[in-house]
Amino acid sequence: MPTHEPDRCETVPSLEQILGLIDPGMLDVVVAPRGTGVPVTDVVLLDPGEVREDEGGAECEDGAPERLDDTWTAAGPVLLAVGVEVASPDAVDVLRAAERAEAAAVVMRRGTRGPRTALLEAAGRGRTALLTRRPGQGWTEVLGRLRTALVHSAPAGAAGSAGVGVLRLGDLSGLANTVADLVGGAITIEDPQSRVLAYSRLDHEPDPMRRLTILGQEVPRWRVVELRESGFFRTLWSSEDVVRLPADARYAERLAIAVRHGPEVLGSIWAAADGRPLAGDAVAALRTAARAAVPHLSHHQTWGRAAARAREGAVHALLKGNVRAAHEAGITADRPYAVVVAEAYDAHGEQALSTVTTGQRVLDVLALQAAAYRPGCVTARSGRQLYVLVPAGDGEADPSRALLATVRSVPREVVLAGAGPVAAGLSGLPASREAAELVVRVLRERAARRPAGEVVSAVAAYDEVVPEATVLRLLDRVEPLWGALSGPVHAMVEHDRAHGSAYGDSVTAYLDASCDTGAAARHLNVHPNTLRYRLRRARELFGVDPADPAVRLLADIGLRLAARRGPLGTDRARRG
Question: Which of 253, 297, 402, 417 is least surrounded by CB atoms within 10 angstroms?
């Protein structure tokens, strides 16, 4: 038996630690003759072909592996026996090969029949733990999660400074904020393709490059080319230390360090002077941060995206009333939350973005801003909408106000954002979501009905739009009934749709202007006499007389409902 250094077992994680960091139910411990406290050095694939070619190994007379001393605690790898099922005739041979490799554990596919008695007996007499992989879990996923857990469960001393070693696995935004505090500057965490994975909170106005990088979610392509041609990236990826990018006439000084897991580059951490000089020990802090970032970037690379999709699904379930999804969504049950809904619009603010790429970029930026805004913010996407659950701080009446203000920092595109009331408990989140969605609908209608050149608010809280939101709720209830009725307003709307006339537009503008002909004509960009003629013809042709209170009410309801189906006539078509 090889001689192992006892101290080494104290510097590597145990099988129990690693299993505690992967999804429950991914792997099952079948037999662990030495318990799960055995130290693990690596996670590797075992080739069954090599097992059949290997004839070595000490055995007892009955063919079982040699029984070893119970005090044997040497560190070893976890072997993944790809393609081997526990009921297979080869399973015992694979276990013996794992014993000879001095493995801490071997993982096989469970299958439908379970392990044979011979395998269980052989495992009980050996020193290598026998684990099974549950159906539905791919070997690639198991390998990635075990390796990520192995890196993350390294002793705390390897991470260094306080704070960076106690973050939740995969919390890149938390890591960026923690490192920013240590460095005294602004932090950006990027993948090897210079795409932004996380950035620290914006305590000061960022310089132009940081703003471009954050809003675009990646370093601008021309800047990447510039750094590549200057040799900066070559130096960064080949160095294991901090690389300095001096300040110039355009941008502040940068410090950057590559994050490595062995020979593999997982990404980089960038520090920029943020309205103040970097801390004197910024270089040392970045070295520590690079070591601490390894498990987080490894987690992101191997299964962070899948976990994010699952978490996003849990957020949607929670917003629909499934309070059991709170834990998976990352929500603290006893903490009040407000729901914010943001919707991406085009530069004119009159209709939703038709290009998916642009809309996703805007919402992705807002999701990053939400993550940097406050610990505990969780987000979920749905088409062109982004849902944000914002936790309230101690004594804070409305936690969404500051987040709504960040919407205004998105240039070029217009984003409509609404906040629902604070929900004291999980059961109140669906109502807060519904209220936030109503706010966005109100803002959307304001944008569609605004006069040319008029600027309307892009953000609002529910308590600011209660009358308009209430009207929307009433129209939602009336709409099914209205479609089954007929009358003067119905006839006018159908005539406009069939002939492209503008009677409905004229009546709408007149009602919106509180029956002020001059104001309504200016809104339609027509002469007042033209508007008077249209109103007279609407009365003669269809019986729609705005002077009649009942007809006025019906016209207001019917024309609002008709607008939901799209433009009525030529004037609206020209404006939209």
Answer: 402
**CA–CA distances in Å: residue 69 to residues 34, 73, 103:** 10, 9, 15
Exposure string (b/e) for 489-524, b if CB count within 10 Å is 16 or more? Answer: bbebbebbbeeebbbbbbbbbbbbbeeeeebbbebb
Choice among 7-11, 35-39, 456-460, 523-527 with the minimum mean pLDDT: 7-11
Q: Contact at 8 Å (CB) between 413 and 361? A: no
Three-state SS across 87-98?
CCCCHHHHHHHH
Report the phi/psi class of residue 136: left, alpha or beta, with left for phi > 0 and alpha for psi in -120 to 50.
left
Residues 136/158, Cβ–Cβ less than 8 Å: no
Which residue shows structure tokens 């993948």?
191
d(CA 272, CA 180): 9
User: Across the chain, which distance is largest between two alpha carbons, in Å?
Assistant: 111
Q: What b/e sequence results for 307-335 when a residue is b if at least 16 CB atoms lie within 10 Å of its CB, and e otherwise?
A: beeebbebbbbbbeeeeebbeebbbeeee
Nearest to 144 by CA among 59, 22, 323: 22
Residue 407 has a CB neighbour count (10 Å cut-off) of: 18
Chain segment 471-503, per-residue pLDDT in tens? 999 999 999 999 889 999 999 999 998 888 989
Q: Is the pTM of this model over 0.85?
A: no
Integer Cα distance of 489 and 255 in angstroms: 67
More confident residue, 50 or 12: 12
**Contact indicator for 316, 382 with CB cutoff of 8 Å:** yes
SS (H, E, C) 7-72: HHHCCCCEHHHHHHCCCCCCEEEEECCCCCCCEEEEEEEECHHHHHHCCCCCECCCCCECCCCCCC
Residue 434 burial class via C-beta count within 10 angstroms: exposed 0-12, middle 13-18, buried 19 and up: middle
Least confident of 49-53, 375-379, 540-544: 49-53
Burial of 342 (0-12, 13-18, 19+ CB in 10 A): buried
More confident residue, 216 or 474: 474
pLDDT digits (tens, 9 = 90+) for 237-248: 888 899 999 887
C-alpha span between 273 and 180 (Å, rounded) = 10
**pLDDT tens across 327-369, in order?**
888 787 778 898 999 887 654 444 444 444 455 566 766 776 6
* 338/392 Cα distance (integer angstroms): 7
User: What is the reported pLDDT for 320?
Assistant: 93
Q: Which of 307, 303, 392, 370 is nearest to 379 (CA)?
A: 370
Q: Is 121 exposed, middle or buried (0-12, 13-18, 19+ CB in 10 A)?
A: middle
Q: Is the dihedral of CA 399, 402, 405, 406 positive or negative?
A: negative
HEC-encoded secondary structure of 174-191: HHHHHHHHHHCCEEEEEC
Cβ–Cβ < 8 Å for 203, 274 = yes
Cα–Cα distance, 353 to 367 (Å, whole number): 18
